[in-house]
Amino acid sequence: MAVTLILLIQKSESLGLCFVLNLAVADSFIGISITGIATLELSQPNSTSEHCCALTMSFITSPSAASILTMVLVAMDRYVAIKQPLRYLQVMTAPVVASFLVGLWIVSCFFGFLPVMIEDFQHNDYGGKCTFFNVFQPSYMLTVFSLGFLPGLLVFVYFYCDILKIARSHAHQIWDIEQVGPAPSCTNLHNSHDLKAIRTVAILIGCFVLFWSPFFVASIVQLACKSCVLYEVIEKYLWLLGLGNSLLNPLIYAYWQKEVRQQLYHMCLAVRRRALSLLHVDSHPPMPRVTASHLNNISHPQGEG
C-alpha cells in the first residue's frame, strides 16, 4: 500500500495522499511492534524487565496514536477539499502538510511515552509478564481517552456533520438548477466529490468508533470499578480489536479509493508481465552455439576413404 501511494503521489502530485501514506506507515509500525513483543514473549516468557516492557508498550501505543490522529487528518483533508475547493491547493501546500505530519508524530510519541516519563502511570507490583495493564495503570487510559480519543471523535463528528451540511446545500442548488434546465457537468462532478468525501469520512468514523470504543469504555469501567476484573478481556480481545483497525485501514483505501485501486491493478499487471516473461525465458533453453568450423564442415563434408 505504501509503494502504491508513493507512486500515486509522484504521478498526481496530490499532497493530500501524504496523509494516507502516513497512515500506512503508522499501521506498518504497529505490525512491527506487535511482532517484536510477540517474539520477546516467546523467547523470554515472564522474564521481561519492567523498563523494557514499558518501552515496548510505548512503541506500540505511539504508532497507534499516530494512526488515529492520521485518520483525523485524512478527514480534515477531505473537509478542506470540499469546503474550499478553489483554495485547496493554496492551503494544502508542502510546508503545511509536512508541519502537520511532524506535529502528529510529536504528539503521538508524547502520548505513547507518557508512562515512561511519568512513573505514576506505571504499576508498582510488576510481575514480569509483559502485558499492557500489567505495566500501565488504568488511569493512563483515562488520560489518553480524555486528551486523545474523545477530542478526535468530536473532530470526526464535526467534519462529518459539516460535510453533510455542505452536500445538502449543493443538492438543493443542483435541484434548483435542474428546474431551469439540465445541470452542468461540473456541478455533477462536484456533487460526486461531495459524496465520495461523505463516504470516506463516514467509513473512517464508523471503523474508528467500532474498533476502539470497546477498549476505552472497558478501561474506564475498570478504573471506576475496583472490584471488576476486566484486564484479561481488555488485553486479549478488546485491545487486539482496536489494533485490528490498523489492519483494516489499508483495505478500506484499497477498496474505496478509485485511484488506489487503479494503481494496485497496474502494479499487479506489471508484476504479472514480469513473471510471465521470466517463465517464458526459462522454458526455452538456449540454442547451441554454432561456430565457423561447424559451418565449414557442413558446407564441405569430407569424402569417405
From TrEMBL:
Superkingdom, natural source: Eukaryota
One Pfam family here: 7tm_1
Domain G-protein coupled receptors family 1 profile: 1-253
Family matches, as PANTHER family: G-PROTEIN COUPLED RECEPTOR
Subcellular location, principal: membrane
Bilayer-crossing regions: 15-34, 54-75, 96-118, 138-161, 201-225, 237-256
Family: Belongs to the G-protein coupled receptor 1 family.
Official protein name in the record: G-protein coupled receptors family 1 profile domain-containing protein
Record GO terms (molecular function): G protein-coupled receptor activity
InterPro entries xref list: GPCR_Rhodpsn, GPCR_Rhodpsn_7TM
Subcellular location: Cell membrane
Cellular component GO terms held in the UniProt record: plasma membrane
Organismal lineage: Eukaryota, Metazoa, Chordata, Craniata, Vertebrata
